[in-house]
From TrEMBL:
Residues 1-21 form the signal peptide. The lineage of its organism: Eukaryota, Viridiplantae, Streptophyta, Embryophyta, Tracheophyta. GO terms for cellular component: plasma membrane; plasmodesma; side of membrane. PANTHER family: GLUCAN ENDO-1,3-BETA-GLUCOSIDASE BG1-RELATED-RELATED (PTHR32227). It is an enzyme of class 3 (hydrolase). This is glucan endo-1,3-beta-D-glucosidase. GO terms for biological process: carbohydrate metabolic process; defense response. InterPro entries: GH, Glyco_hydro_17, Glyco_hydro_17_plant, X8. Residues 353-373 have a biased composition (Low complexity).
Length: 480
């Protein structure tokens, strides 16, 4: 048999073996004033083999452009409309009729994201989430669309009270009874799935002194062993997803599927945004696509065929915040690629990015924890003070860092960072004052002291700095 024929047969076999693998989608954000028309965007998606997209509203131009394209779409009911959708079934019925029923099935709407990262929304919309989802579901039933379209809501990883190690993943205690139990019961009852937004970049950027870049980018590395279950993790994405699976398992919802509704890596950032670069963005997204499309589950759920939506289709020039926020796109507004990665199984055939390590579970004999991958070089500046230079020093939250960065850093410190955060839990001695700055300072300082006040251990991507006067928050003093 000729080599060319053999090659073709092997590739066909590989396609068949990937038939039950995961799926890649792309978020289509439009916080910009220089993007192509929706018709051109859909043409671009089709030319790249994009089979799924997620949008952040129900813009008629976008939904019309997607009509007949064969691209499956997830639409969003914005946080601002949660109150009305929860309180007025008539509003939910009208919203579904106008924004979903009017387009489906020519526009293949497969899911409705009710709100987005509601638990971190500063407007207090959490209590309206599940009632709004139930009313939207009833509207789908009314229009006989409930068999075709699922209802869910994307949560940020900060919805976890503990995310490290992955085996100890759990939801925030104060959210379990009022929100998560009814939410998960609704998802099970309707045959839906939990939507999760996961960004290893933010964990790495805030903690580059302790997280290996290779580990964050799916590149070859020794791996990290979870002391709770003996499984070895070769990338941060798997560890974060398995923390969610563990949180579900803790509430007896092992049967629920997870869809990653956002993940990505910026191709550009500010000077203090460690790791934001074109090369790293291409490595993260390229290796992630390969993992998902070749059937890579997670160590905890090796057969989980994940659907993952990359963020985002374009660089969006009107997004607020640091430079990275405007540089998560796969494409520039002129439709040229920011970097070249495949989005399909066929495209993987000629993709030569550095292969990722195996993500299959590999228990360690005796369950002994192994050392973590060699960490990236410590970050200097912004509190990178050595222990010898400051015998008595403390690490506190930088109030100018912004709520989002403080929350991400706090989640890391109390999760993967291993800080002792028991004192700032509800009812504990240092819970009051119940402010993000106070809680973050307790967590950052615990981490800083635990690391022996080593250089770079009070940085958290600019969210913290060192002080030499012992800080006090309410009745609690930070310990040295």
């Amino acid at each position: 048999m000729k080599p060319l024929i053999v090659s073709a047969i092997l590739f066909l076999i590989s396609l068949l073996s990937f038939a039950d693998a995961g799926s890649i989608g792309v978020n289509y954000g439009r916080v910009a004033n220089n993007l192509p028309s929706a018709v051109k965007v859909v043409q671009l998606m089709k030319s790249q083999g994009v089979e799924r997209t997620k949008v952040y509203d129900t813009d008629p131009a976008v939904l019309k452009a997607l009509s007949g394209s064969g691209i499956k779409v997830t639409v969003d009911l914005p946080n601002e409309q949660l109150y009305q959708a929860a309180k007025k079934p008539s509003f939910a019925f009208s919203w579904v009729q106008k924004n979903v029923a009017a387009y489906h099935p020519h526009t293949q709407i497969e899911a409705i994201a009710v709100g987005n990262e509601v638990f971190v929304d500063p407007h207090g919309t959490t209590k309206f989430l599940v009632p709004a989802m139930k009313n939207i579901q009833q509207a789908l039933v009314k229009y006989n669309l409930h068999s075709d379209i699922k209802v869910s809501s994307p949560i940020a990883l900060s919805a976890l009270g503990n995310s490290y190690p992955a085996s100890a993943g759990s939801f925030r205690p104060e959210l379990i009874e009022p929100v998560f139990k009814p939410l998960l019961a609704f998802l099970r009852q309707t045959g839906s799935y939990l939507m999760v937004n996961v960004y290893p970049f933010f964990a790495y950027e805030s903690n580059a002194d302790v997280i290996s870049l290779d580990y964050a980018l799916f590149r070859n590395n020794p791996g990290v062993v979870d002391p709770g279950n003996g499984l070895r993790y070769y990338n941060l994405f798997d560890a974060q997803i398995d923390a969610v699976f563990s949180a579900l398992s803790a509430l007896k919802y092992d049967d629920l599927k997870v869809v990653v509704t956002e993940t990505g890596w910026p191709s550009k950032g500010d000077k203090n945004e460690v790791g934001a670069s074109l090369e790293n963005a291409a490595a993260y997204n390229g290796n992630l696509v390969r993992k998902i499309l070749t059937g890579g589950g997670t160590p905890l759920r090796p057969k989980a065929d994940l659907t993952v939506y990359l963020f985002a289709m374009f660089n969006e020039n009107q997004k607020p915040g640091p430079t990275s926020e405007r540089n998560f796109g796969l494409f520039y507004p002129d439709e040229k690629k920011v970097y070249d990665i495949p989005l399909t199984v066929e495209g993987l055939r000629n993709y030569h990015g550095q292969p990722s390590s195996s993500s299959s579970p590999s228990p360690v004999s005796g369950g002994q924890p192994q050392t973590s991958p060699t960490p990236a070089a410590p970050v200097n500046g912004g509190g990178g003070v050595s222990k010898s230079s400051l015998a008595n020093s403390w690490c506190v939250a930088n109030p100018d860092a912004g709520k989002e960065k403080l929350q991400v850093a706090l989640d890391y410190a109390c999760g993967e960072g291993g800080a002792d955060c028991r004192q700032i839990q509800p009812g504990a001695t240092c819970f009051d004052p119940n402010t993000l700055q106070a809680h973050a300072s307790h967590a950052f300082n615990s981490y800083y002291q635990m690391k022996g006040r080593a250089g770079g251990s009070c940085y958290f991507g600019g969210a913290a700095y060192v002080v030499t006067q012992q800080p006090r928050y309410g009745a609690c003093e930070l310990k040295a």
